[in-house]
Write a structure and sequence with these properties.
alpha+beta; Lysozyme
Length: 237
């Protein structure tokens, strides 16, 4: 399990809250702009290639690759992921660290330590796993919002927030509960931590479509980053 003292491991691997590292991630999140085509994954399993996808009130606007625009209720979109395929993708292996709940307190320097611990316990997740997911999703920023509408600490999409009855996505406890419940749902569905994380990032339909971790660079980097932070020494970028 990740040790309480992470030094001298680098910040991405040990969740060390270095202010410069967190600030850099926050700037990247805030300045993110559409740079490539995307994949919009619908909650009914359909997958659509689009030029861009962005939240507009309670709707998501999809700029279609062939021209034109499709506007749909935000609750119909599971996830949006960059349509950039990793060259020569290597397998993403399972890790020996146990994803299920274990009473391992997080160190004082982990932001939102107590609500992460409580949400992890309620969803039968290892608290280190949930902390690693929050770091990858929002860099522990409870007000983070993606262009496509993912919100809060665990970057819940509107559909997932509704499914898990999250009333306030910007409330840390409510958001953590919803995100933990959604990850647990994916774990129960796929019986594999890499696949569950891939589904959390790119939608369950993409995992089923590829029968494994999808080849999207964003998703594979996301899965490796969380596995590396959760179970140091097992994956690297």
């Amino acid at each position: 399990m990740p040790p309480a003292d992470c030094s001298p491991a680098p910040p991405p691997r040990c969740l060390r809250p270095a202010r410069t590292a967190l600030l850099a991630v926050a700037i990247v999140l805030a300045a993110a702009v559409p740079a490539a085509a995307k994949i919009a994954v619908f909650t009914d399993g359909r997958i659509l290639k689009v030029e861009d996808a962005y939240l507009d009130g309670d709707r998501i606007v999809l700029d279609l690759a062939e021209g034109g625009r499709l506007v749909v209720p935000a609750v119909r979109i599971d996830r949006v992921v960059a349509d950039e395929v990793e060259e020569r993708p290597q397998p993403v292996e399972a890790v020996p660290c146990v994803a299920a709940w274990t009473d391992e307190p997080l160190p004082d320097w982990v932001p939102f330590r107590d609500p992460i611990h409580a949400a992890a316990k309620a969803a039968n997740l290892n608290p280190w796993l949930l902390a690693a997911l929050v770091q990858a999703e929002s860099a522990f920023d409870p007000h983070a919002v993606s262009r496509a509408g993912a919100m809060g600490l665990t970057q819940l999409m509107p559909a997932a927030a509704v499914d898990h009855r999250v009333e306030d996505v910007f409330d840390p406890e409510d958001n953590l509960r919803g995100g933990a419940s959604h990850l647990r749902l994916m774990l129960d569905r796929f019986s594999s931590l890499p696949l569950a994380l891939a589904a959390y990032n790119a939608g369950a339909a993409t995992v089923e479509r590829y029968d494994g971790v999808p080849p999207y660079r964003e998703t594979r980097s996301y899965v490796r980053r969380i596995l590396s932070a959760f179970c140091p020494g097992t994956h690297s970028e």
